[in-house]
Each structure stands twice: as C-alpha cells, then as structure tokens.
Amino acid sequence: DLIHFSRQMHSLSKAGVPILSALAGLAASTRNTMMAKTVQAIRMSLESGRDLATALSEHPKVFSPVYVSMIRVGETSGNLDEVFIQLARYLERDKHTRQQIIAAVRYPTFVVVAVIIAVVAINILVIPVFAGMFSKYNAQLPLATRILLASSDFTLKQWPLLLLASVVSLFGLRYYLSSEAGRYKWDKWKLKLPLAGDIIYRGTLARFSRLFSMSIGAGVPLITALTVVAKALDNTYVEERILGMQTGIEHGESITRTATATGMFDALVLQMMAVGEETGALDTLLHEVALFYESEVEYDTERLSARIEPILTVMVGGIVL
Q1: 232 secondary structure, DSSP code
Q2: Which is higher by pLDDT, 8 or 97?
Q3: Which of 147, 268, 290, 318 is most deeply packed, by most CB within 10 A?
C-alpha cells in the first residue's frame, strides 16, 4: 500500500495535480481501510495549514522517519515528485529482500515445528503403549530404551509444570527482548548467527548505503542524515555505532575516518566512502555499494535453503536415532 501510495503521488505530482486533490483521489481509491483513513487524515492536516512532512509525521506507524525526512527535503527543494519515486523504488527493493528471506526460512521452520510435534506425540501417545508391554517381561532393557521410557513418564506426570515453564520462558524472552538491554544484545548477536548472520550484516550495510545515498543526494544535512538513517535500520547496535559517527564529524573528521572507528563497515564500503569524499560523489558511490550488497544478499538468500537442508537432515536423523 505504501509503495502504491508513493508511486501514485509521484505520478500525480509530476502531472501537476494539486496535492489536496491527489490525496482526495487516493483516499477514495485505496482498498486498505487503514491507509485510506491515514490519507484522509493527512489531507485534513494539510487543510489546517501543516506542510506535508509534518502531516506524515503524525502517523509514525505508517510513515518511517526516513520517509518523512525525505518528503521534507523534497518539499524544500521543489523535487517532491522525484523523492516519491525514489522512496517507491527503495520500498520495493526492501519488500523483495524480506520476501526472499521469508521464503528461504519457510521450509526449515516447517520441518522444525513438525519434528517438535512428532517428538511430543511420541512421548505422550506411542512410548506409553510400549512401556506397558515391556513391563510384562521383567527384563533388563537397553539404556536408550530406559531413557526414552523415563522421558515419556516424566512428560506424562509433569506436563502441567512443563507447559507452565514453556509459557513463562516464552513471555520472559519476549519481555527481555522488548527491553532496551535485551534488544541491544539480540541485535548485536544476530549479526553473528551461523548462516543467517552474514546475510543480515550485509543486508544492513546495503540498507545503510541505500538510505544514506538517497539522503545525501536529496540534500539532507550530513548529521541529520546519519540520525535518520541510523533509526531506520531496525538494529539498536548498528544505530549506536552510526550515531557515534556524528561526534567525529562535528569535530571536523572525515566520514571515512569516523566510519572506520565504528568497526561496522568492511573494506569495500570504506574504500568507496573515501573515493566519494575525494571526488564529491559520495551519494553515487554509496548507491553502487548498495547495488553490490543487494545482489550479494539476493544470491545468498537464494542459497540459504540449500545450506540449511544438510543441517536439518543431521538434526532429524539424530532425533530418530
């Protein structure tokens, strides 16, 4: 819906349609009820004298800080139609990457859930039947069999306690991850996850490069651009590192030097930043970096399922054994 809104606003702005008329038409034609109400509220804000960026900022659940900042620059510079199409293209690329990752982890998630259900069903329904049969023989059972029987017996007798422990653990984990310290540690740790960590890391670099390039190209002041882009990356650990660049820049250091000090950027990004600063084409070179990392993420995401399958095979085999 947001992509459609951005593209429609680009077309209408470029055609010279007054913004109030454009928003009225979009509110009437948008199928998403929430989006239609949001567009109508934006139109009312404009009629009361607010500018478009301020009207959008009143709906943070729909329009991100990056979106609002870019629109503000577009209004100031008179290039609102160009900003809308840039935002539409960025949102499309971001949506495509997210869909690829979801598709890659769908099969492994299904297998893991199926295995958990199977193990629980075996413990509750299957093993007790064999336990009754074995008890008639009064024979010394193998160790593996005794372990299975003991785990099944424990599950049947203590299932209320196990269920309570699972629920408490789930809510405790959610509470911890929603806290500032918990989210920071998780955001830092997920960049080092096996298989997926490298994809998340490069995806973050691609997003940073794309947004920073768009912001600089649109004329956003450097310090403001860093603030807006950092908050748009959905990673508090990376956000802290990028916001730390502001202090160095305010003291007169180059972007490349402050970026190096964060320890977040690899040699390619730093080299392109250095060349961009020297040539005055930082936005263009960061755009090239974003394209490179986006293609890398796309390639690795397509291979993710193939890399996970052997691990799943070993895991399922171990459970069966």
Answers
A1: T
A2: 8
A3: 290
Q: Which residues of 293-315 are buried (b: 16+ CB within 10 A; e: fewer)?
A: bbebbbebbeebeeebeeeeeee
CA 239 to centroid of chain Cα atoms: 13
Distance of CA 61 to the CA centre of its chain: 15
Which pLDDT score, from 0 to 100, does residue 170 have?
Answer: 93
b/e code 220-259 from CB counts within 10 Å (16+ = b): bebeebbbbbbbbbebbbbbebbbbbbebbeeeeebbebb
Query: Is residue 104 scored above 80 in pLDDT?
Result: no
Supply the angle between the helices 2-14 and 80-121 in degrees, to the nearest 10.
170
What is the length of the chain?
321
Cα–Cα dist 58/259, whole Å = 32
Joined together, the tokens standing for residue 131 give 């336990």
Residue pLDDT, tens place only, 196-225 = 788 888 888 888 888 888 888 777 788 888
The Cα 94–Cα 81 span in angstroms is: 20
If we measure between CA atoms, which residue out of 6, 70, 91 comes closest to residue 228? 70
Tell me what pLDDT residue 177 has: 87
Rounded to whole angstroms, what are the CA distances from 233 to 19, 76, 298? Answer: 30, 25, 18
First to last CA, the chain: 49
**Which of 33, 5, 31, 32 has the alpha carbon at shortest distance from 19?**
5
Which tokens in the block code for residue 219? 């004329």
pLDDT in tens, 105-145: 788 888 888 888 888 888 888 888 888 888 777 778 888 88
Structure tokens at 100: 């690829």
**Is 266 in a helix, a strand, or coil?**
coil
CA–CA dist 118, 296 (Å, integer): 37
In this structure, the dihedral spanned by the alpha carbons of residues 270, 275, 279 and 285, taken in order and rounded to 10 degrees, is -70
Tokens at residue 281, please?
């084409």
